[in-house]
Amino acid sequence: MQVTLVQEASTLDPAENRDRLAELTPEGSDLVVFPEAYARDFGEPGSDLSDAAEELDGPFATEVARVAAARGTTILAGMFERSADPARPVNTLVMRGAAQADYRKIHLYDSFGYQESDRVTAGPLSPVTVELGGLTLGLMTCYDLRFPELARALVAEGADVLVVPAAWVAGPRKVDHWRTLARARAIENTAYVVAVGQPGPRYCGHSIAVDPLGEVLAEAGEKPESLTVTLERDVVDQARRTNPSLANRRL
């Protein structure tokens, strides 16, 4: 399966972000992954996000589906979805194309001086997996990467690939945490990790793809960039024979 990681910044203008989907989505990839909040950036810390919220059949998800069909691919991208609390939308990933899924962010970024839960409603505590190209994808969003129990729950549901759109805020140690956590989630679960962030300077960039034994297949820098990697079923199977840690679990 060929996967393209699109490390591009979103703006505060949803129409502009929608318009760029077609420009940034290549032909020939099985999966194209955009960052968290690609439909509309978070804005300044603590900003009201209610005006950015849409339904899952609204303009953004509809355009994701249209571009995916036009390119013959599947697209995963982040948006804000209307919730039962009009003031606090859900931070949602929408996947449209050859596969379809929606994942609502479980772990909200109440850390490093931020309080995402003031402006966002957390999603249900249910791991979301989806089949595509002979592999099972497990969906996570940004801060979720810091929680190994979610990654393990996704793998217990059959995930071979952990896909992590993010807007990983820049700061001291943050790139090191991002890279280390991506590799750790890959190694401990003998799964691919495809983690796609928004670029600097506000965010860290460094979108990364890691194989099931922890080797970095590709990594971006801080600036906008797209990377393409190939994920193979046989690589997952071989890694799990070499390091059968999932089979050896006792807890």
TrEMBL record:
UniProt keyword annotations, A-Z:
Hydrolase
Tell me where on the tree of life, at the top rank, the source sits.
Answer: Bacteria
Nucleotidyltransferase is among the record's keywords: no
Molecular function (GO) terms for this protein are:
hydrolase activity
Matching Pfam families: CN_hydrolase
**CDD domains documented for this protein:** nitrilase_3
Show the Gene3D superfamilies listed in the entry: Carbon-nitrogen hydrolase (3.60.110.10)
Residues forming the CN hydrolase domain are 1-233
Task: Give the similarity note.
Answer: Belongs to the carbon-nitrogen hydrolase superfamily. NIT1/NIT2 family.
The protein's name is: Carbon-nitrogen hydrolase family protein
Q: Which organism is it from?
A: Nocardioides agariphilus
